[in-house]
Amino acid sequence: MTRVAVVGAGIAGLGAAYALQEAGLEVIVLEKAAVPGGRMQTRSEQGYTWEAGAQFLLDDQYVHMKRLLRKLGIPLSAHRIPSVTAIVLPDGRLWYIRMGRPLDLLRHPALRPASRWRLGKVFLAAWRHRRHLHFHHPELAAGLDTESVRQWGDREVGPDAVDFLLSVPFSTFFFWRPEETSLWCLLGIAGLQGAWKVVVPEGGLGAVTAALARRLDVRLQTTVERVEIGPDGRVTLRIADRGGAAELVVDRVILATSAPVTLALLADPDRALGRVRADFVRSIRYVSNLTTAVGYRRAPETRAYGISIPIALGHPVAAIEWTHTKGPDRAPAGHGLAVVMPTHAWSVANARHPDEAVAADLVAAVDSLYPGNAAEADFHRVVRWEHAIPVAEPGWASRLAAALAAGPAPGSPVFACGDYWAGPSTEWALMSGWQAAAELLQSLGRSIPPEYAVAM
Question: Facing residues of 219 across strands?
Answer without folding.
Answer: 30
